[in-house]
Amino acid sequence: MAILNYTTKVDPVKTINEITNCLVKHGAKKIMADYDDNGTPIAITFMINITDEAIFYSLPANFRGVLKAMEKDKTVPPRLRNELQAKRVAWRIVKDWIEAQMAIVEANIADMAEVFLPYAVTKSGNTLYNEIKSNPKLLQL
């Protein structure tokens, strides 16, 4: 099966706007896109409140990883195996994932803070997932 959304033509900026609207609809505040030195959007950062405490989350759109997957996947036509397409695809995948998480929230399976927990930004500026990845003992009893 080919990588999800590999044929998309939707510009990343349009997708980021769709993501922003979805997050706002579900209570996110202070949403912004993060860009690399080349002006490429690489993450979306937003804030939600947990018991009156502001918690920030940062969701990456790793287009380089998507490009590697697309180059490896021979069902993806060669004309689509490029950086621009990988950026489009990465952001569409992030949007679809966020929408799936919001379905979980709407079904009262979990709350918004819970589904995004690995992407919570810690005091060091890393995500919680990256903190645990660099120090797995944080989770040991």
Overall SS class: alpha+beta
Low-confidence stretches are none
Query: What count of domains describes the coordinates?
Result: 1
- The shape is globular
Structure description:
The chain has 141 residues and is α+β, with helices and mostly antiparallel strands. It has one domain (12-135). It is 42% helix and 18% strand. It has five helices and three strands, in the order αβββαααα. A three-stranded antiparallel sheet has the order 1-2-3, covered by helices on one side. α1 packs parallel to α3 and α2 (63-72) crosses α3 (83-106). The mean pLDDT is 95.
Structural features:
single chain; 141 residues; alpha+beta; three-stranded antiparallel β-sheet; 5 helices; 42% helix; globular
Give me a quick take on this structure:
The chain is α+β, with helices and mostly antiparallel strands and 141 residues long. It has five helices and three strands, in the order αβββαααα.
